[in-house]
Amino acid sequence: MPDLQQLADSMLAAAGVVLGRLVEQDSAAMAATRNDHEGSIRTDGDQLVTIAEIPSLGAQVVVRFPTADLQQIVGVMLGGVDDVGEMGPMQLSIASETVSQIATAMVEQLAKDLGVSAEGTHAALCNDATLLPPPPFESYEGSVQVGADLSPHLSIDFAAITLSKLGLSGSGPAGAAPEPAREPEPAAAAAAPARAPQAPQPDAQSVEYTRMAPTPVRTAQPGQANLDLVHDVPLQISAVLGKTVMPLREVVSLQSGTVFELDKLAAEPIDLYVNNILIARGEVVVVDDKYAVKISELNPQVGT
Description:
Elements: H1 4-23, E1 27-29, E2 33-34, E3 47-54, E4 59-66, H2 67-77, H3 89-114, E5 122-125, E6 137-146, E7 153-159, H4 160-165, E8 237-240, H5 248-251, E9 270-274, E10 277-287, E11 290-298
Antiparallel strand pairs: 1-6, 2-6, 3-4, 3-5, 4-7, 6-7, 8-9, 9-10, 10-11
């Protein structure tokens, strides 16, 4: 089985392949170097943090990207801009998808090198530090040379629990010498003296508890269930005109006046979702200069 250094080098090489494909430039990954991360990983700093998971092992790997490097990559993907400055919603969405693709490719390569199934491997941007594995971490970092001007940096963090699930053991802090093996302690010369007999304990006394009857549960009459407790719960209702799937290349090229086709015909009803659950279908109408939905079907079957 390869050691952790070799696995980190292989993961960086996989990241280089994805980066080169995204920006359509030649790429080459540098060798990883050991640089353990001290303490917990923060998600509110100047880096984008992803959690990549291998379901077949139940193991998670943390991959970190400096935000400044992602700004440059997004700039190139948007048409060769060297620096996009502070990223807006679209740039953040592109950066999130980019780091997810890179981290997914890295753990897929890790699963391949470990000889385990890569089915279901995935990665996502993490904005909540409580979802990250706990320290200590054995960390490796390196860079990928993309074209002549880009050299993004990446860091890979293996928590102790992750190393255990991967069948690997941490090698201790970087640069630390291995701890010498301890010599076995000599056997005791004589058996420990037997404990002195304890004084007899007083007889335990049984305790009587007051008998109580369970409180009867009041049930609502049929058809009169009490919904007062949930009447004020807010629900998000979404009217979906249609959906489509577009590659990232087309998404970043969208501009004012762009027309793209949805998956529904003009005469088909729109879907009405409550908390992402399809509950009805209807048609779009106008009420007092505002769009509205006139329901034509309740509880439709999904896929019909």
